[in-house]
Amino acid sequence: MKRQSGDQPGADCSVAWQLQNGRSRIQRDMAADGFKGDYPYAGVTIVAENRNQEDDSSASITVETVRDVFAEGVAFGVEDALRDSLLEAADIIRDKKLSGCSAAAIAFSGTHVWYAIAGNCRIYRIDSDGVDCIVHDQSAANEVSMSSDHPDYHKKIRELKWWLGSQATGKPVCGHARIKQDTTYVIFTAGGWTQFESSAVVAHRKGRKKTLAGWLSSLSRDMKLAYRRQGGALGAVSGMKNGSGSSIPWKSWVYLAAFLGLIGFLVFANPFSSQPQIEDKTDLFSSSSIEEIVQPILADTASGNDVSRKSGMFNTIADSMFLPEQETLEPAIPDITADLPLQIMQVGGSVSSLSPDSFYVNLNSEPDLQWENFAPGIYAIRGDTASFMLAVVVSSVYPGLEIIELDRIITVRENGVAESARWLSSLSPDSAAGTGVVVETRSSVAGGAEWIRNYPLFVNGNRADHSSEAGGFMGDSLPGLPSLRNTHCYRLVIVL
Question: Would you say the C-alpha torsion 455, 456, 458, 461 has a positive or negative sign?
Answer without folding.
Answer: negative
